[in-house]
Task: structure prediction
Amino acid sequence: MHIVVCIKQVPDSAQIRIHPVTNTIMRQGVPAIINPFDLFSLEEALRIKDKVGARVTVLTMGPPMAETSLRKALSLGADDAVLLTDRKFAGSDTLATSYALTSAIKKLSEEEQVDLVFCGKQTVDGDTAQVGPGIATRLGFQQLTYITKIESIDQGAREIVVHRRSEGGVQVLKTALPCMITMLEGTNTIRFGKMDDMFRAARYGLKTWNKDTTGAEETKVGLKGSPTVVSKVFVPKPRAQKATMVEAEAPTAEAQAAAAVEAIFGAQPKLADELLARAAAGL
Amino acid sequence: MSEPSKPQGRKFQLPEHLKEYKGIWVIVEQERGSVHSVSWELVGEARKLADKLGVEVGAVVLGADSPELNAICGDAFTYGADVVYKVTDPVLADYRTDPYTRVMTDVVNTYKPEIVLLGATTLGRDLAGAIATTLATGLTADCTELDIYMDNRSLAATRPTFGGTLLCTIQTLAYRPQMATVRPRVMSMPDRDDSRSGRVVEVFPNLRETDVITKVLSFIADREQNEAQLAFADIIVAAGKGLGKPENLKLVFDLAKVLGGEVGVTRPLVQAGWTGFDRQVGQTGKTVRPKLYIAAGISGAIQHRVGMEKSDLILAINTDPNAPIFDFAHLGLVGDALTILPALTDAFGKRLSVNRLAG
Result:
């Protein structure tokens, strides 16, 4: 069984600040991390490896510095790592990114057939959730997004049973390998690396591939291969009005609460009526 | 919205053969006979955009043929659609990526809409990513605002990025259709007009179940579970780190109970394991638009803000008078949530029970 886990190195979005004058992102000093959603998928891949045996290859597309994220994944227990990096990929949108990653997965499949591809549910910087489905579609793999649980995996029958979150409930799906899976966050606890994996990760000679290595067509990557165009970037406008402060007769919690209830009922008479009607009906 | 700055160094002219793409479509999300409200919100939004462009609104309804599905087609007209593409096949009874993608790709290629909109739900995002790939076109995810740039009649889709710290406007200029997913409850629900109707285009894709690899073994509905239904709650009482410790969440639940509302939390609380992910409001959680949102001990980080700022009325309770939440809440109360929450529970309880006695 060969599992490929696609990860992305992202700036820690919790630590990004906007420059107060120029309104641009201040990336300086913002630590780069593995996209947190990818870790749930990596963990699931490693669990399959522990349970039924598998080779786990971690793949990322990004600048050379993304190597750090690959080494982190190796230290957690991934077997191999591929860095897909090329200036020609710069400016790729999700369609172009999924194409480039697919070209690398196809090359990995030549070495050993890929049975499962894991992707993060979405990234914390782009938040699109489109690259996973893009890869699945291009590879012709079954697409299983928002998976909360892998119930069983049968290598002999090449069957997998999963729980998939939908809006109104959980779908229990049975499908065949190969497939592409994105795990929902919080579905598993991410492990700590073992000491020998950490040493191996530090020494590991990871593969660095470019556009020509994977045979990706130039017209399908980078800005040229991207149908979407970012026409404007701006900082959200603050709402013009600040909150009206609730003034109480006395500084006690009771007085403040009473004043707050009056303020709410005053601002939303319709809501007040609904609440009162519901209370009157004994609901 | 101001006019776009011209991006440089690429071709942005729409090729001649793509100019015949006309009309704005909404893929109506129905699961087991019930429609996700985001679909109607989008039909309402599509109506506005279509009126600007002078084109038709198409609603695509997919599923197994049934009276429920016919009712959904009728509803699409009342919310603003001009034409309903009713795509029926037994194989489409349950959502599965593969058959839905194949069918939608064919239908788009046949009827050539210029814009295709879907809800940014688990179904919508799953399907949109697959269709955009088969159609090799642009897709903008999780939009919070849609507009038409009239100079080139293109869709301008605005979305938060970097966890909501920035907004960007994205266009698909040289490809068709232009695709976008939109978060539930960001667009307002259109008013029904029961006098409206339109034409139905029936599509029979003629699928075979044996061709579909993924099988649905069962469906565990949330209403049979104990999951929070935040996205549809009229009243939400939400807690942030200001609550101090997990035991204090009880204060929020008590108030929510008196109000018949749901409990929401910020991401740090979920990460700290106070409660499940189903209660998280914000960029990486649920987007909510209740009539009343009470934010207790929440500072108002942008990641949380984008998930709740469209609430009709926001009351913020925080000990810090300079907390950013007071910049966008409607009502503010400077004080300790730990003492104010129980007082609020009492005050609402009294107010509502007095009425019950009087009634």
